[in-house]
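Cont'd.
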Amino acid sequence: MTDQMKTKQYVPGEHPDMPPPAGISGPVAWVKNNLLSSPLNVVLTVISLWALYKIVPGSLEWMFFDAAYTGKDRNECLAKAGGACWAFVGERFELFTYGFYPAEERWRVNLAFILLPIALIPILWDKCPFRKIGIWFAIAYPFIAGWLLLGGFGLESVPTDKFGGFMLTLVIGVTGITFSLPIGILLALGRMSNLPIIRMFSVCFIEFIRGVPLITLLFVASTMLSYFLPPGTSFDLLLRVLIMVTLFASAYMAEVIRGGLQAIPKGQTEAADSMGLKYWQSMRLIVLPQALKISIPGIVNTFIGLYKDSVLVIVIGLLDPLGIGRASVATTEWGGLSTEIYVFVAIFFFISCFAMSRYSLYLERKLETSHKR
Amino acid sequence: MNESVNTEAAVDSKLAVEIRQMHKWYGQFHVLKDINLDVTRGEKIVICGPSGSGKSTMIRCINRLEEHQQGDIIVDGVELTNDLKNIEAVRREVGMVFQHFNLFPHLTVLENCVLAPIWVRKTPRKEAEEIAMQYLERVKIPDQALKFPGQLSGGQQQRVAIARSLCMKPRIMLFDEPTSALDPEMIKEVLDVMIELASEGITMLCVTHEMGFAKTVADRVIFMDGGEVIEENKPDSFFDNPQHERTKLFLSQILDH
């Protein structure tokens, strides 16, 4: 009894908080826990380090240290350095960016490029000053950009077959992303509706579009539609592509959002109903904010998929960056330069997709309210 | 027990809720059988019974979270039919507190409270916030107004849920097992709020197993089993002198443990 009393340092109820014992935090502990915690982990760590050693220095050498950055054609590059030849980037930058957009009108594309972040920031950043005006601008942006790019109403009109390069990717990506989210939400709500006709329509639409490859839809857009439409109606090819890409992404979006909707407990709508909120109010204020939050990873996944799928327009003759790259490989100046060109296009896509992915993580953390105590 | 059933009852302004010969089925399953209930204004009613007896379903019919298939339910003079106008009118006047609180986790406590007044009653935001703060004070958590529901304890969440319902200034409050999901330490704080509310003259229908609460507050206790009202009486007679075997068994199980 007395021995026990001696081992107790504190009276019960007065035990202070103490620091943890040494060795459970700090860099050494981190390495021990994460890299060397078991024989298998030691082996994996060694293999990974060896692989990095084999891959990284060589790649850096090829990409940067032994690369040629200037030159008129591939032979000049080869004479200068043994690594990558980035000279084509400078030489063909305008083609990669604008496609065949007329040179004297390219300021319009530049302006649309510059306005894009101005439209995006108020949507993406909730503490942005003048956010209300900004959001109205964001809503107007697709129309402003459409006017700038297409022309008309005082600007010289530019036919869409002159569009190409990164500009074309952005046009398809931004349009698809802007419209597929609201259409997807409506389809998801339709699929969960109590009204049988609306539900049937949504199910048929989603299942049909998801059941057909995008390439097929694009072919339909480029060739078949002209058979169905009355003769003489001209229906812009790019517009058809935009519609098909948007519908395709909407079908996937609808299923992603339906997953989110199903995760919302029934009690949420019951509470909203019991207070007298109408269907659309309870969807807009209660259910969708929560469902969309849960669906962020899936939504961004669909966005990224759509954005990258835009390169498929190459099969119907639109010249996106990949198409321009392929055309460049076939020229006499840059013939045989395929690795560099494809790496360049890959870097462009990687940067945009990685940015979307990081933003979605930021958004998820910011909207997290349920578990922070 | 029930007086002669009058299906053509004129709207009696004294009655908050009238239920006449109401039946409900889930598919083939007959959940509610011939329910008849008159609740006068200001009356406090406690409904108890074993699980699956239909007591929650019954009070959920009163604000049409569940649809009944036969009979009439008239709430505050408005008959519940398929007419959305009537349903919305009833829901504006009837508040409900749920077993699992059903607070909106993406909104702060204050936003939870002002949502319905702003969107349903069209109260200006500032005024709605003042009213909300009054009710949050009454349930003794004004200092939590800017927190999210996930940051509160169960008892605090349920008190917010009560305040949220009260912000709509309902004439009738429905409580669907409000303390069943709470830790023992938190039951009292919620019951205290409900007892205080009862003293203010609001009509209350409360599904609960808290027999102490029933004894203190209820004007009438209703015992349900198998979808039927088995017995209803004043609390003293109900607890001291239950008439039916089923009621006696239920009370012995719930009180002797």
